[in-house]
Design brief:
heterodimer, A: D-Maltodextrin-Binding Protein, domain 2, D-Maltodextrin-Binding Protein, domain 2, 2 domains, nine-stranded mixed β-sheet, two-stranded antiparallel sheet, B: MetI-like fold, 13 helices, 1% strand, flat, transport (chain A), SBP (chain A), signal (chain A), Bact_solute-bd_prot1 (chain A), Probable sugar-binding periplasmic protein (chain A)
Chain lengths: 444, 313
C-alpha cells in the first residue's frame, strides 16, 4: 500500500473510531437473600441536595439506625436519574442498595426493565395492605402493569400560588376556580410596560417552569391511553381543549414572542429570583415546595394558595390537582435486599418517619396515617396541598414502558403548537399519537 | 544458514515485533475494536442494559431513520456545526495566530488573552455566554439596542442558536492559535525574502509561501475540528437547558435541543436513547452514523488536502 494511502487509511480509522467510544455494555443483576438481623451496612442514594433537605434525610436515617441497630446506612445525595441508571446497569459492590427518584413518570421503565427489584415478595412477607396505607394515585405511579417495583416516599401536590397584594390592587377578591376565570384574572393582573411587561398575570407558555402539558392536563378529566394501550391524545377531547385554551391564553396575554422575551428575564426556577418571588408573575402553577421557597426568598407580598382551577364543565371537581413525588425502591443487584427493605419500609410506611421527613423538607406526606397526623407541622396554607393530595380526582400521568418519553413527545407538540408552527391541532395530535405508539412499540 | 535456523530466526523476529506492538494492540483491541464490534452487534439487538439482548433485525435502523423525530434535525445540526463552526474556528485561529506573530510589542499579553478562554471549563463558558447573550437582560443585546441595531434572540431563537454556539467556539480558539503560531514561526524566512525580491504582495506571500508551509497543520486543525464537532455535546446541551429555563428539579420535561431542536446534536441522541430511554440498540445506530460520518469527512479531507491547501510536506 503506498505510504499516503496507508496514512489516509490509518487516520480515517483512528478518527472514525474516536467518535465511537460510547460503547454498549452492561449486565443484569440477581437478587440475593440476606439475614436482615445481621450486622450490615447498606447504601442509600437520593436526589436531595439543599442543606435543609440533607439534614432532614440525615435525621430520618438516624432514627432508622436507632430503631435498627444492626443496619448502618451510607447515604449518598444529589443523585439524578441518569446517575442512578448507570449505577443500576453497572451493578457492583459499590452501587446502591436502596434507590430513589423524583421522576415518577420513569417508573414504567424502572419496573418493566427490572432496573428496580420487585417489592411484592417483601410487601407480602410483611403483610402490608397498600390500599389502606397509600392514596390511590400514589400507588398508581409506583407500579407498572402490576409490577410493584417502588413505594411512594412523600408526594408533591400542585396548586395555584397567587400574589394577594396584586389581586387586591386589581380588585380581585378570590382565586379563580375555573379555567375561564383563570384567563380573566390573568388578563386583569397583566401590566404592560413599553413593548414588554412590568408583570404578567401568569406565564402561560410551556416553558413557564411548571406550566407544562401534563400539569395543565390535571385540570381536565383525561386519559393518556385507551383500553388497548394506544395513545388517546387525539381521541380524548380533553387534550384538544387544553391545547386550545393554553394557546388562546398565550395570545390574550400578548403573544408567544412577547411572552418568551419577557420570560428570558426571569431568574431560574430554583433560585431566589424566581419570577413569582420577584413579582414578575402574579400567579404560578407550582408544587407545594414553592411556599417555603418564596418565603425563604423574602417575597415582599402576601402569598395566597389555592387548588389549580378546573375546566369550566368540571367545576364540581374543584380541589383536584396534579400529583407526583419521590419513589423509593431496591437495587436488583443488591446482596442486602432484606436489610434494604427494612429501610424502604421504614421510610415509606412508618408514620412518625413520614411525618418527620415531610416536616423537614416541606413535602406532602404519602400515607393516609401521616396525612392525618396531628404532628404535621405546617403553615396553615399548606393544608390546601394536603387536601389536593387526598382529592379523589387528583391525577398523575399513566406509566409507560418507555417512561416519560410519551409525555416528552406530547410536550414537544405543545411547544410547536403554542408558537404557531402547527396550524391544524387535530392533525397535529393525530401525528403525536402515532409517534407515541411507535415509540412504545420500539421500547417493547 | 539452514532453513530451520532461518525459520526460527524469523519466528523470533515476529514474536519480538508482536511483543513491541502488544501495548498498542491491547489498547486498540480493548478501546477501539471491541467497542466497534459491540456497537455493530447491539445495533441489531433490542437491549436495555438490564436484560439479555434479543435479535431485532433492522428494527433499530428503521426506527432511527424513519420514526425517531430527533434524528434528522440532529444530523442537520451536526453537519452545520462541522461545516460552519470548524471553518470559523480554523479561520479565526489562523487569523489570530498571524496577527500575534506580526505584532512587535505586547505579544505575550495578547497570546495570554487569546489563550485564556480555552482554559475555561465548557459548562462555565457556556453559562457565561447564555447570560451575556440573554435577549432580555444580557449586556450584548443592551448595547446592540442602544446602538439601534437588531437584537437577536441568540440561544432563545432557533435561527441564532447555532451562530451563538459558533461564537462560543470561536471565543475559545486558544488551542488553534498556539498551534498555528508554532507553524507560522517555523516557515523559513528565506522564502519570504525571496518572494519579496520577486515583488509579491502580502496576499501572494500568504497564499504561495505561508499556506503551503503550514498546510499539514491546517489539515490537522480541520480533521481534529471535525471530530470535535461530531462529539459536540456539553455546550449545546447546557445552552439549551439554561436558555429554556429548565435546569432540573421536579422532573418536569426539558425540550431537547431548545429552541425548536436547533441545538440537538447526534451525541445528545446517543445519550438520550441509550442512557435515558434504555434503548441501546437505537443508540448504537446513531453511534454508527457518527462513525460513518467521521470516516467520510476524514477520508475526503485526506484525499483532497493537496487540492484544498497545496502540498507543503
Amino acid at each position: 500500500m503506498p505510504r499516503n494511502r496507508r496514512l489516509t487509511a490509518s487516520a480515517v480509522a483512528v478518527a472514525a473510531l474516536s467518535v465511537l467510544t460510547a460503547a454498549c455494555t452492561g449486565q443484569s443483576g440477581n437478587s440475593a437473600s440476606d439475614d436482615p438481623n445481621a450486622k450490615t451496612t447498606i447504601t442509600f442514594w437520593h436526589g436531595w441536595s439543599a442543606p435543609a433537605e440533607v439534614k432532614a434525610i440525615k435525621d430520618n436515617i438516624d432514627r432508622f439506625e436507632d430503631a435498627h441497630p444492626n443496619i448502618k446506612v451510607n447515604v449518598v445525595g444529589n443523585i439524578n436519574d441518569d446517575k442512578l441508571n448507570q449505577a443500576l446497569r453497572a451493578g457492583g459492590s459499590k452501587g446502591p442498595d436502596v434507590v430513589s427518584s423524583f421522576t415518577t413518570s420513569n417508573v414504567g421503565k424502572f419496573c418493566s426493565s427490572g432496573a428496580f427489584a420487585d417489592l411484592a415478595p417483601f410487601i407480602k412477607k410483611d403483610k402490608i395492605d397498600l390500599e389502606k396505607t397509600f392514596p390511590k394515585v400514589l400507588l398508581q405511579y409506583t407500579q407498572f402493569e402490576g409490577d410493584r417495583c417502588a413505594l411512594p416516599l412523600l408526594s408533591d401536590a400542585y396548586g395555584l400560588y397567587y400574589n394577594k397584594d396584586a389581586f387586591k390592587e386589581a380588585g380581585i377578591t378570590a382565586p379563580p376556580k375555573t379555567m375561564s376565570e383563570l384567563a380573566d384574572v390573568a388578563k386583569k393582573l397583566t401590566k404592560p410596560k413599553g413593548d414588554t411587561y412590568e408583570r404578567v398575570g401568569m406565564m402561560p407558555t410551556y416553558h413557564g417552569y411548571e406550566t407544562v402539558v401534563d400539569h395543565y392536563m390535571s385540570s381536565w378529566d383525561h386519559a393518556y391511553f385507551d383500553k388497548d394501550g394506544k395513545s388517546n391524545v387525539a381521541k380524548d377531547p380533553a387534550f384538544a381543549k387544553m391545547f386550545t385554551y393554553q394557546k388562546k391564553l398565550v395570545e390574550d396575554l400578548g403573544g408567544f414572542g412577547k411572552l418568551e422575551k419577557f420570560r428570558s428575564t426571569f431568574g431560574d426556577e430554583w433560585g431566589a429570583k424566581h419570577p413569582f418571588h420577584t413579582g414578575q408573575v402574579a400567579m404560578q402553577l407550582d408544587g407545594e415546595w414553592r411556599l417555603g421557597m418564596a418565603e425563604d426568598a423574602g417575597a415582599d407580598f402576601e402569598i395566597g394558595v389555592a387548588p389549580m382551577p378546573v375546566a369550566d364543565d368540571e367545576a364540581d371537581s374543584y380541589g383536584k390537582g396534579f400529583l407526583s413525588g419521590t419513589i423509593m425502591g431496591i437495587a436488583p443487584q443488591s446482596k442486602k435486599q432484606n436489610a434494604a427493605w427494612e429501610l424502604v419500609k421504614y421510610m415509606t410506611t412508618d408514620t412518625k418517619a413520614v411525618v418527620e421527613f415531610a416536616n423537614g423538607i416541606r413535602n406532602v406526606p404519602s400515607t393516609f396515617a401521616a396525612l392525618k397526623s396531628p404532628d404535621l407541622d405546617f403553615d396553615p396554607r399548606f393544608k390546601t396541598f394536603l387536601d389536593i393530595a387526598q382529592h379523589p380526582k387528583s391525577s398523575t400521568p399513566d406509566g409507560a414502558i418507555n417512561g416519560a418519553t410519551y409525555q416528552q413527545t406530547l410536550q414537544d407538540f405543545g411547544f410547536q403548537y403554542e408558537k404557531g408552527s402547527v396550524k391544524n391541532l387535530q392533525e397535529g395530535l393525530e401525528k403525536t399519537a402515532q409517534q407515541i405508539d411507535r415509540d412504545i412499540e420500539q421500547a417493547k | 544458514m539452514s532453513s530451520n535456523t532461518l525459520r526460527s530466526k524469523r519466528r523470533r523476529s515476529a514474536l519480538r515485533t508482536a511483543a513491541f506492538l502488544s501495548p498498542w494492540l491491547i489498547g486498540f483491541s480493548v478501546f477501539f475494536a471491541y467497542p466497534l464490534v459491540s456497537t455493530v452487534y447491539f445495533s441489531f439487538m433490542k437491549y436495555d442494559g438490564f436484560n439479555a439482548p434479543v435479535w431485532n433485525g433492522l428494527g433499530n435502523w428503521s426506527y432511527v431513520f424513519s420514526d425517531y423525530p430527533m434524528f434528522w434535525p440532529s444530523l442537520r445540526n451536526t453537519l452545520w456545526l462541522v461545516l460552519v463552526m470548524v471553518a470559523c474556528r480554523v479561520l479565526f485561529g489562523l487569523g489570530v495566530g498571524l496577527l500575534i506573530t506580526k505584532i512587535k510589542t505586547g505579544t505575550g499579553v495578547f497570546r495570554t488573552l487569546f489563550y485564556l478562554p480555552y482554559l475555561a471549563p465548557p459548562v462555565a463558558a457556556t453559562l457565561a455566554f447564555v447570560f451575556l447573550l440573554n435577549p432580555g437582560t444580557g449586556p450584548v443585546n443592551t448595547i446592540l439596542g442602544d446602538l439601534g441595531l437588531p437584537t437577536p434572540g441568540w440561544f432563545n431563537d432557533a435561527t441564532w442558536s447555532k451562530p451563538a454556539l459558533t461564537a462560543l467556539a470561536v471565543w475559545g480558539i486558544g488551542d488553534l492559535m498556539v498551534i498555528f503560531m508554532a507553524a507560522l514561526l517555523d516557515v523559513p524566512k528565506e522564502q519570504y525574502e525571496a518572494a519579496e525580491l520577486d515583488g509579491t504582495s502580502s496576499w501572494q506571500r500568504f497564499r504561495f509561501v505561508t499556506l503551503p508551509n503550514i498546510s499539514p497543520i491546517v489539515l490537522f486543525a480541520v480533521v481534529t475540528g471535525v471530530i470535535q464537532a461530531m462529539q459536540y455535546y456539553t455546550q449545546p446541551l447546557v445552552a439549551g437547558k439554561v436558555a429554556s429555563g429548565v435546569i432540573g428539579g421536579s422532573g418536569q420535561q426539558f425540550e431537547p435541543g431548545y429552541p425548536d431542536k436547533s441545538t440537538l446534536t447526534l451525541p445528545q441522541l446517543v445519550y438520550n436513547l441509550g442512557f435515558q430511554r434504555f434503548d441501546y440498540g437505537a443508540a448504537c445506530v446513531v453511534a454508527l452514523v457518527l462513525f460513518a460520518l467521521a470516516m467520510v469527512f476524514t477520508a475526503f479531507l485526506m484525499r483532497r488536502r493537496g487540492g484544498l491547501i497545496g502540498t507543503g510536506d
